[in-house]
User: Fold these one by one.
Assistant:
Number 1:
Amino acid sequence: MHAASRIIVGVTGSVAAYKAAELVRRLQARGAQVRVVMTEAAEAFVTPLTFQALSGHPVRGALLDPQGEAGMDHITLARWADAVVVAPASADFLARLRAGLADDLLSTLCLATRAPVYLAPAMNQVMWHHPATQDNVATLRGRGCRFIGPNDGGQACGEVGPGRMSEPAEIVTRILDAAGGALRGEHWVITAGPTREPLDPVRFLSNRSSGRMGFALAQAAAQSGAQVSLISGPVALDTPQGVRRHDVETAQQMLEAVMAVAPEAEVFIGCAAVADVRPARYQPVKLGKAALGESLPLARNPDILASVTALTQPPFTVGFAAETDDLEARARAKLRSKNLDMIAANLVGRPGLGFEADRNELLLLWSDGKEHLGPADKAALATTLIDRIVTHREAIRPSANTGI
Ligand SMILES: Cc1cc2nc3c(=O)[nH]c(=O)nc-3n(C[C@H](O)[C@H](O)[C@H](O)COP(=O)(O)O)c2cc1C
């Protein structure tokens, strides 16, 4: 999004409403035109006068205000905006937006706009974790709403956990830089999910990968403007908006799908949990108990990451490592042996994180650096990981395809 963008800042009823004042100032400092819309509850936390003084324009509030609505403001504003950012977004507001309610100006204009809608939630961590909120978030994400945060940390209520509104500087970066298409013109190839290695028509070897991390990465890259090819093993997930998805089952099929597109890609992220081995022989008819025997002859599967980095002009390649112990040493060894540019390592086997979970924690390693990311939900982690790839790739491998 170019700097001279027209942005509506929506403020809802949360203690974090005071941070919206800094958000308005920072957006304006980057050259954006800003109009502020507040919910009634927001006005109990910060006065409209603050935002009027900062933005230089009257703050809109009530939907059925004869003065403010003289010119059908909800439609005028909805058309005027290049982006709408609701920061803070309360749990109540997320629920209203998910339900499609239009009983206040902010929810009505979110329904009426074609501009991207960014949501920066802020709430107590128990409210954030509540299945109702998580369900609302998942549905809104699926409809294309772009979530920024929430971050982990100390909260106004004295608790610690996810629910803190993202810092205004981070929100500005997401809206004006990344979402505006920092990756426009680039092709990113991302693998996700497990592979399934059949023994006979009813049995297979596989693993616990849910595909959520890879799908979150695909969504975040697409939202940053990249053309994304998502090559996925068998998962129960919806395709993120704007992503080209190719479903496969076995490691061999995944390799073929990857090699068909990777030579032209700027970035390859191998997030799939590819089975290392497969049953040595596929039996086209179901094996009876007696025929199964007591051991299963195995064959090694192709190494997709190593095949990509062996290309003459490989894309910038990021691998994933899931380990149960000795995380950093094992991940560094994999980084070197497969000639990767970066590796995101996660300890698996801890409750609530990693495989099959919504949250994760990663140790990101590259030749001369490392950074701990999270714990955070996979969507937030995906955005951060993509940001780190973009930040470090030039220093790590200046020769990589950059899309420029
Ligand atoms: C002191 C106080 C702090 C609150 N902080 C939050 C908050 O951070 N996040 C949230 O979702 N709701 C919070 N609430 C509850 C909301 O203000 C309430 O759900 C309200 O209906 C939200 O309305 P709105 O979404 O129209 O702005 C708080 C309430 C009070 C009294």
Number 2:
Amino acid sequence: MPSHPVSYDLAEAPLAPGEVAIIGAGPGDPGLLTLRALSLIEQADCLVYDRLVSREVLALASPRARRLYVGKASRCHALPQEETNALLVRLSREGRRVVRLKGGDPYIFGRGGEEAEVLVDHGVSFRVVPGITSAQGCAAYGGFPLTHRDHAQSVTFVTGHCKGDGDLALNWASLAAPHQTTVFYMGLANAERIRSELQRHGLPAAHPVALVERGTTPEQRRVITCLGELVETIEREALTPPTLIVVGEVVRLAETLAQPAPEEAAFIEDVVLERVAL
Ligand SMILES: C[S@@+](CC[C@H](N)C(=O)[O-])C[C@H]1O[C@@H](n2cnc3c(N)ncnc32)[C@H](O)[C@@H]1O
């Protein structure tokens, strides 16, 4: 059990010296941080952050706060996980107010659980603040829902990359069942396996797929394709991580629900403000 009790007040206990807050930084847009995350980031002496944490989020901390990068790219570890764990324990023992910032949600493919276990083992006081996971951010900003009463009664978040590049042993038959949405995190390198297994288990080549690269950031790219053309599309568009692969009928709704591009959004805001002024 975390030693910090869950608080339902916005004015919760301040971050204590020696305490670690494991915080979800969301998928990129700083506007998607929770109020609690913002409050704790502002109190931090030290930020220990991953590759997917945006610069805008890091900029919210005090200029005096130390910013320690421990990010990982697939197969290219900036700092081994054990060293990140040891760093958190050491900073806590030095009496720092530590914020461990992770992209998206720390408990969804974020190793937040592994780090929390280490903190428990070492008697370090910690709390966890959830973040908006990239599937949610990419769906909202990409213009499609993850569930819909007419198209998908469930949504599954799946890793497309196993520990130590191990075999992607997923329950393909269940992922290929109709009326559901499947979101593959870290799936680009295994796209051919994902395509062939889902088709082998019954999904048609025309089944809709959305690829969202750097979702919710100014560099977001959203490409709509179909299962049979998944690999060709990734190659043609030269998509790189971080990208999500979203498989399901809900993707068809992107044509009608897509959000306006940022320039258009700014224009709409101007118009609304002018109306308010009248
Ligand atoms: C190690 S997982 C971290 C997931 C994170 N904890 C979350 O909840 O979103 C990294 C993968 O998440 C996905 N991802 C994270 N941020 C993303 C973004 N802004 N746009 C698209 N995909 C993203 C990509 O599939 C990336 O390879």
